[in-house]
Write a structure and sequence with these properties.
It contains 17 helices and 15 strands. Pathway: Secondary metabolite biosynthesis; terpenoid biosynthesis.
């Protein structure tokens, strides 16, 4: 395996993840990978008090240093004690939460200055202000992107050509000039990204600051691999609006095999039982962020019940309870798990043959890495474009919404979901997308193996960052001009 040049026996990288598990977990996979391949590379991670236990447990068998920062308190609009997006009572408070992170900047800089020399900083794209901090001490900042290259390339191309302006309907299909085989709708983007959005709103200002900081950073890390998104990687490299990007994924494949737990969680015992019965299982999960109406959840329950398919539904805290009696009626073939479920372990389980998903990028990457096809039901953020990529580009999934014009988002009726679940799990289209997902899984493994594209990219990144003579002024800018006051 690779090792750092002897010129830098004390090479040092700092990580600062965003306070959301979906943003943190891929970076922790990267930390593991770095420590395994580059043993002389020391790692320091910044975390809030509430976030630290999760990180410590995740990396309990890995030698890293963790520095704890206090999350700001008494922020207007934010409940006391909220230190992660998972504990926000409503996603409407997301901009306020993100802006509050900047109040950690003085303490972050104090701790950063006291550290041994740092070769580079990897911080989440939402922590835009870390560019300014890193620049003060001549440290190159690399932004971690939670987006796919497809989302980045399509968004840049659409914004450059102003394709969302003057369109009559949010569901009208629009041809992307730079990629004429790709069609999108206005509804594929959240309202804050549309031309008529108020640029002075807190959400708009936060997003613009984050985008600008990424553009002005030394580079970015993407949890993807070149073979998955070749055309879109090339576009971002040659025509996109960001600095050099290193595709290092799928980072979920950096995990080492776990020992079988002495006391298996209930959901894992249930999956083992379905495997022994020869019953294929549909995994159902919609992430930890989305607000889903009780009416929609009941329609999903109807679709699952009437499909006759075995399913494991990982319900999160924001999801309300479904109609009384549902779990009793489906108990022989369906399980609703309310405790924390290890999604990676679920998707790689031999009984799991499909995934009804919101298409968050981590979920997409994990699913195709395991060869599991997706029934795509996007809800917000980049999920609609991810769904298009899965269904229309990769051919590794089906749409859950088929009657909303050109849109991939929308309300799902139970009877329609029943039909689509059966098609994914038992139909001819399901066989086709399952075959394609299996092919992508093999590609993903090769990308992460020695001399694969992601393996080489990580080698290049570490050698480039740790063999530099002098670290000053390596950013695209000094970071000035990105100052943002809460």
């Amino acid at each position: 395996m690779g090792s750092i040049s002897s010129d830098f026996p004390s090479s040092h990288v700092v990580f600062f993840p965003f306070m959301a598990k979906g943003h943190t977990i891929p970076l922790l996979h990267l930390v593991r990978l770095l420590r395994r391949r580059f043993r002389r590379l020391s790692v320091t991670i910044f975390a809030t008090a509430a976030h630290r236990p999760f990180i410590s447990q995740f990396l309990s068998d890995t030698s890293v240093s963790i520095i704890e920062l206090s999350f700001p308190q008494d922020i207007p609009g934010l409940p006391a004690g909220v230190e992660s997006t998972e504990t926000l009572p409503s996603l409407s408070l997301f901009p306020e939460f993100c802006m509050a992170t900047k109040l950690m900047q003085p303490d972050f800089e104090k701790e950063l200055q006291a550290l041994p020399p740092v070769n580079f900083l990897v911080s989440d794209g939402f922590l835009w202000w870390t560019l300014e901090s890193a620049s003060k001490f001549g440290i190159p900042r690399i932004s971690f992107s939670g987006l796919s290259n497809f989302v980045g390339a399509i968004s840049v191309a659409v914004m450059k050509d102003r394709l969302l302006a003057g369109v009559e309907s949010d569901d009208e299909l629009i041809t992307v000039s730079s990629f004429p085989w790709v069609k999108v709708t206005r509804s594929d983007w959240d309202p804050v990204f549309l031309p008529e959005a108020d640029p002075t709103s807190l959400h708009s200002r936060f997003l613009m600051a984050s985008i600008q900081a990424t553009i002005n950073s030394y580079g970015s890390i993407v949890n993807s691999f070149y073979e998955l998104e070749q055309v879109f990687c090339d576009y971002m490299k040659h025509g996109g609006a960001r600095p050099k990007a290193w595709n290092l994924g799928p980072l979920c494949l950096a995990q080492t095999p776990k020992e079988a737990p002495h006391n298996k969680p209930t959901w894992l015992e249930w999956l083992d039982q379905k495997r022994s019965q020869g019953k294929p299982v549909l995994y159902v999960a919609f992430g930890s962020q989305a607000d889903i109406s009780a009416q929609q959840l009941n329609e999903i329950a109807i679709g699952l019940e009437e499909s006759g398919v075995s399913f494991l539904w990982a319900k999160k805290g924001r999801e309300s309870e479904v109609e009384e009696g549902f779990e009793e009626r489906v108990k022989e073939r369906g399980m609703v798990a309310r405790e924390w479920v290890d999604q990676w372990e679920v998707l790689r389980h031999e009984s799991v043959k499909g995934f009804l998903s919101h298409c968050g990028w981590n979920s997409v990457v994990e699913s195709v890495s395991c060869g599991v096809p997706i029934l795509a039901w996007p809800i917000m953020a980049d999920q609609a474009l991810n769904a298009r990529m899965v269904v229309e580009e990769l051919k590794a999934g089906l749409r859950a919404v088929e009657r909303c014009g050109g849109s991939v988002k929308g309300f799902v009726e139970g009877k329609e979901l029943q039909r689509l679940v059966r098609e994914l799990m038992e139909g001819e289209k399901g066989k086709e997308v399952r075959k394609k997902a299996a092919e992508i899984s093999e590609m993903a493994k090769k990308a992460m193996e020695e001399d694969g594209s992601s393996w080489r990219n990580l080698e290049e990144l570490v050698q480039q960052m740790c063999n530099r003579q002098g670290q000053k002024n390596l950013q695209g800018t000094t970071g000035e001009g990105n100052t943002f006051n809460y």
